[in-house]
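This section describes the prediction task in plain terms. A model, or a person checking by hand, is given the sequence of a single protein chain and must write out its three-dimensional structure as a string of tokens. No templates, partner chains or ligands are provided. The sample shown here is typical of the held-out split.
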Amino acid sequence: DVERISLAMELRGHVLEASRCPNANYVLQRCITTVPHGALQFMIEEITAASVRQVAKHKYGCRIIQRLLERCPSEQTRPIIDAIFEDLVGMSKHPYGTYVVQNIVANGAPADRAWVQQSVLHDLRLYCMDMHGRAIVSAILDMVSAEERRALCERLLREPGLAVDMAETRPGAELVVKALRDGGATEAMLAATCAVTAEAMYGHVVAESGGRLPRRGGA
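The expected answer:
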């Protein structure tokens, strides 16, 4: 540990530069995964002192933040998480920032996951109509309780005009199918969703999946 910590300390003052380098970012990631989390505080401080969101939106920088989120307790990475939450929708819709948010959903504290979940519920259309935002909705569906999953799926499917707009793209249509499947759609809801998406570009994806979906009773 002493030798690894000593090697990691050689990166002090160079974290930002290394996080943007196609080669040095691997060195940073290796240090994060092998050094005790307490010795990584200088990395968190350097990233926070610069711009967390800029690093999170970088092709390589997003990997560094993900490794820190995985390795360090949420109390230690709180400055990073709080900075991400200051523009959660924007980060979720960014090509690289979305991976950081997905990491928070998968590995973060329950309270942080709940914060992302509330953001999705509040701005559901913004998330569902964006190619990167949809990944956050899908991640939330994979992590929440069965009751919360059903509530979110029903909210998505009942939102006026949302399912048909989503079905204009294949990834959007596939998320509609996921909502029908994971939410245990009723016969009535399945029929209604297939009907409203029928004329959409990828409405056939919804219709073709309908016969393979589990269903529950009720309206």
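For orientation: The radius of gyration is 20 Å.
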